[in-house]
Every structure is written in structure tokens, then in C-alpha cells.
Amino acid sequence: MAQALVLAARGLGTTSPNPPVGAIVVRNRRIAGRGYHRRAGGAHAEVVALKNAGPQARGATLYVTLEPCCHLDKRTAPCVPLILESGIRRVVIATLDPNPKVKGRGVAALRRAGLDVALGAARLEADRLIEPYRTRITTGRPRVTLKVAATLDGKIATARGESRWISSPQARRIVQGLRAGSDGILVGVGTILADDPSLTVRLRPARAPLRIVLDPKLRIPLQSKVLTDRQAPTLVVTTQSSPKPQRELVERLGAEVLVIPDKQGRVEWRVLLEELGRRGMNALLIEGGAEVNASALRSDVVDRVIFFLAPILLGGQDAIGAIGGRSPARLTDALSIQDPMVSRIGSDIMVEGRPARNKSIS
After folding, report:
1. Which of 132, 233, 257, 329 is least surrounded by Cβ atoms within 10 Å, i.e. has the fewest?
2. Res. 223: pLDDT tops 90
């Protein structure tokens, strides 16, 4: 199952709206076939592994990281009948599919057909792998990760806006991996104005997550890289208060402009995330500035935070802090991070955890 999980991880960032899945066919203690789900609309992991195994699948064991599908409401054939036709004798499944159309039904169908089915091997690892998919299936929105690169005293830029590079090269490589595993990368227009980033993935094989810019007034410069470099699709999210002529100019450059309701002059997060969920987005990475970070946390839409803390100190009240907005009056009103994990990444410290729900930054 460990090898199946490694295979499944190769599909991170390319399978949405489907989950990443890996499969291994084992016969006489030797691997006869292997496969993973590469992209939506393509062959599922079980199909690839069975095809790879060929006649060796008969009487063999299939290890798969997620319950095989059994419904017809999709672009590809269900996997359960193909497993039965292959002659597989035993199926080891890491975790159930949270999709109500599948959950438990694939296992039941295999058992009814007389196959030996084992459930739960490496469940925690498999559940972690499909967490973005599970979030969208159960909530209708993508799983949201907020990434921050800051100094040890919590600053993300100097008073003049300089921020390249606070984090170490090793930390930046980790961030490239986060981007590659995401379906969308979101920033505020302030980041575009300050840094003009490309928001692309520099790992190989190249992937092109959707670039999303929050821009309530549509201030994005028409020469911005995200509008002109053609390296990845771009979605500019704005409100009714933005000028229509500017929307048309942005669209002529090839970007999509999405107009959604605003809340006190800011984009309404829950409306945006519901729309991204409808589009099949499983994982969203926020790389915003201080105000976008505060807005997302205040709106209670962040599922995971990752802070890269560099061993440098900026100091000064005029340097830009990681979280904008107003500070709470009392420590008891501070947003806590649950189950924090701390690790060393190059010269930086990485802190990862879950924001406590039902709290806000005022």
C-alpha cells in the first residue's frame, strides 16, 4: 500500500474534480502491475494497474488507495466490473470514498461477487492524500491552505514593500510543491501591484494551476504577468463596483473576470469558494498579502496554515505584518492554531496547523 500511496501522490494537482488514487497488482509477492489516476477523464488507477498486469491479474491481489467506484455518473466506466472481469481474487483498500454515490457501495459490490476485501490499510495516509477532495465533496468548496513567508518577528515585507526573498531556497522549493499540488493559487491585487508575480509552478513536469486575483475595484495593471505571459489561466475576481470598461479590457487579454457580491467593499469569500467548488476545484492555495490573509481568516474559510519563519528580524511598526486588519483587544480573542507541527526547512522554521473555528480577527 505504501507504493500505491506514492503513485497516488503523483496525481496531486491534476486529477480534480477527482481524487488522486494509486493502485498496485501483486501476484506471488511480486508486483505485476501498477498505475495511478493522472487526470480527470483519464483511466482510473485500478484500470491502469490491471491493464499493466494483463493475465497476471487473475488470482492476484489489488492494492488501491481509495474505494473503487461503482456508479455511472461520470466520464469513465466504473472500476468494480473491470476488477471482477480481471479475475482479481483479493482487494485491499486504504479508505472509503466520501462521495455518497460510492461510499461503501464499491466494497459491498466486490464482496457480493465473492472477492476477499480488506479495508483500512494505511487509512490515515490515504485520508490525508484525499483531504482536498473530501472537503469539496462534503462542503461544496475547495480545501483552503494559507501560506505565509515571514521573518521571525512576523513581518512579510519592509515598509517599502520589499519581500524577495525572506524565505530560504529550501522553503521556496517546498512552496513550489504546494503550488503543484493545488488547483488554484490566490493573491490579492496588492501583491500584483507590489511584486508582479507570475504565480506559476517551476517544477517538472510543469503544471498550471488557475491563478486567481482578488481585485474588488479592478485595479490590476493590464501589463501584469498574470494577464500577459500566457503561462497559466487567470481568473480575476471583482465586484459590481468595478468599471465595466476595465472588465472588458482584462477579458480581451484572455483572463476570465468573475463578478461576485462584496462584503464591506471586499470579495465575499464563501460565495467565491462555492463557485470554485462548482468548478471542481479541490485545493486552493492562498499566497496573499496581509489584508487578504486577515480577510480569509476572519471569514473562517481557511482549513490549514503554513508559516515559513526566516531567522531574521525586521522590527519597526511600519514594516508589514503577516496578518492585517485590526488586532483583537484581548488575548482570549486571538485566533489559535490547533495541532501545530514544527519542522526545520533549510534555515527556516515551518509551522503548520489548523485555525480554530468560530473565531475571528476583528
Report:
1. 329
2. yes
Burial 258-285 (b: 16+ CB within 10 A, else e): bbbebeeebbbbeebbbebbeeebbbbb
Residue 362: which pLDDT band, with cuts at 50, 70 and 90? Answer: very low
Check if the beta carbon of residue 316 is closer than 8 Å to that of residue 50: no
Its pTM stands at 0.90
d(CA 199, CA 284): 13
Cα-based angle 23, 29, 35 (whole degrees, multiple of 5): 20
- Round to whole Å and give the CA distance between 106 and 108: 5
Query: pLDDT tens digits, residue range 247-297?
Result: 999 999 999 999 998 877 788 999 999 999 999 999 999 998 899 999 999
**Which grid coordinates are listed for 135?**
472537503
Q: Cα–Cα distance between 145 and 150 in angstroms, integer?
A: 16
- Catalytic residue check, 268: no
- Alpha helix (H) ranges present in the chain? 2-9, 45-53, 79-86, 105-112, 123-129, 131-139, 169-180, 189-195, 225-228, 244-252, 269-278, 290-298
